Amino acid sequence: MARIGIGAALECAFVAAARMGATVRFRAPREGALVEITVTDAKRLPDPDLSRTRRVTNRRLYDGRALDDDTLRALREATAQRDLAQAHWFGRERVRALGPLVEEAEEAFWADATLRERALAAVRFDVKDREEVARGLSVASLELSTAERAALVELRRPVGEGAAAAARKTLAARARKQMESASGVLVITTAGGDPMADVDVGRALQRAWMALTHHGLEAHPMTSILSVAQASAAPDADTVDNRVMQLLASFRRAFPNVPDGARVAMLVRFGWAEAPSCRVGRLPLDDSLAPAAP
Asked: How many helices (H) and strands (E) does the chain have?
């Protein structure tokens, strides 16, 4: 995910540089770096691209309307294959097929102690609902109902298996409703496990998200099933539950046009909805950039 984030940041840099009349070039990265770029002097300083500044994760339920052919065509044209990543766009027919799989994956996600702890650590239970945060996720940004919020809090406590199972099912049912309310899904694939493949996934994701924002669509990456797949493939993973293996196989069958050797690196639902309750802020630049000598 960090490499995907680097790719998204790179795509923003390319978009901003183009608007400024500057040129961005890759160069051989120095020791310890994944990517290194150079940027020429800007010829102008225009306002930022609105699709970039307005882009936001919206976890609300969407209105489920069908995507028209013109919009789908425009989205595909905006995300033509580049380098190691490929964007695949699907409409409502794939959304309905993915609903039960997403529900099962979400339950498996919350049942995995490591994944659960990481997810809960990212939620800012220590701030007010609508308080802007630069790190982590405010509770309000999750768009939970009262019952779903109670289930999330339940998973933070050492409770009996019965209560934990009920909480997992509540959150899993929420994920299914989110997916089934979408107008379509975006899948980004790549071949192999080269680190730059993940960077290209991030660039493709950012291009796609900006295109969605430009057309007035909301977006929400749904990564539980990808996290479960990654956890099951880890070298130190325990014996993988057969149900998880069957789930992952069913997930791949949902995309018959994706080559067998390709890795699904990102899954995003999209559609129309009300604006999110609150935005989660970006990291301050000083926290994500460090000056380096030329």
From this structure: 11, 8
Instruction: Parse the chain into domains and list their residue ranges.
Output: 2-285
> Where do the H-state alpha helices sit in 79-145?
92-111, 113-122
Strands (E), 156-294: 184-191, 218-221, 262-271
How far, in Å, CA of 153 to CA of 129, rounded? Answer: 14
Cα separation, 171 vs 188, in Å, equals 25
- How far, CA to CA in Å, does 136 sit from each of 119, 124, 126, 272? 10, 6, 11, 25
Q: Which CATH number fits domain 2-285: 3.40.109.10, 3.40.80.10, 3.65.10.10, 3.40.47.10?
A: 3.40.109.10
Q: Which helix (H) or strand (E) holds 290?
A: none
pLDDT digits (tens, 9 = 90+) for 120-136: 999 999 998 878 888 89
pTM of the model: 0.91
Cβ atoms of 277 and 59 closer than 8 Å? no
Strand, helix or coil for residue 248: helix
289 to each of 274, 284, 286, how far by Cα in Å?
33, 9, 6
Torsion sign across C-alpha atoms 116, 117, 121, 126: positive
Is the model's pLDDT at 117 over the cut of 70? Answer: yes
Among 129, 109, 116, smallest CA distance to 280 is for 129
Contacts with 141 (C-beta within 8 Å, 6 or more apart), sequence order = 57, 59, 276, 277, 278, 279, 280
